[in-house]
Design brief:
mainly alpha, MetI-like fold, 16 helices, 71% helix
Amino acid sequence: MQKKVSAGNRMRKLGHDIIQNRWLYVLVLPALVYLVIFNYLPMYGIQIAFKDYKAVRGIAGSPWTAMNGFKHFNTFFNAYYFGRLIGNTLILNVLSLIFSFPIPVFLAIIVNNIRNQRFKKFTQTAIYVPHFISTVVLAGILYILLSPTNGIINHFIVALGGKSIYFMNEANWFRPVYIISGIWQNAGWDSILYIAALAGVDPELYEAATIDGANKWQKVRYIDFPHIVPTATMMLILNSGSLLSSATQKALLLQTGGNMATSDIIGTYVYTMGLGSGQFSYTAAIGLFVNVVNFILVLSTNKISASLNGETLF
């Protein structure tokens, strides 16, 4: 009885809150509608991972697979390239996380310590611009810059006495090219959150530190870093949920026959098998597997962060 009463009270409070703050809920309504339409309704299609999907029969009319619906998962786990796909994807994303995650933090600190406002705005604009370059254009720029015959990078190498390198056709160069280009394109944009966090620091803290004789490094260490840690922790937890997900479009554009040994990742495999071979159920199963693993990684990272420094995303 008490449970029914408490539930009724909660519903009345919710209704009262909606009426009282109706315009705020109206403001949020478009975002909620977008979330439901594009994030929750498509989840109905997850079931094709457990079916032999036929377009003519539709999702509901397609038969369930053998092995209690896990046929496609078993096929993927026993696939010849399974180990290489998982290994390449993990290595690429872990290296990207290690090398690209700290850069936005340092950029934010550098920008925050620029005192000339005109130069500060110019610097911010310069580091944000690469983010708006499309992936296709970025890939084209890389092919031009790294060309073994006309590329400016190889011109420098040859001028210094080295031999021309075919960067885009050598497997051991795919990861450096992918990661470095990603840092150049996204580090400035990713620093916005950290710049915003530093903008909220009380100026009196810097004034007090100056009076106490603190130099710039000590201000960064004892004022800037502590204010960035909560935001950095949140971003680290979120990024950990994409260790099995990569920028498929970029990987496809940079992929060549020569670098296939390292550029063949889960995203490119799904693209090839799904759109290239029409195996929609099979690739849906792979996508579901990747999302489940990424979800577990987010929960695990959040739990580890809570035990280490008390900072959590949820």
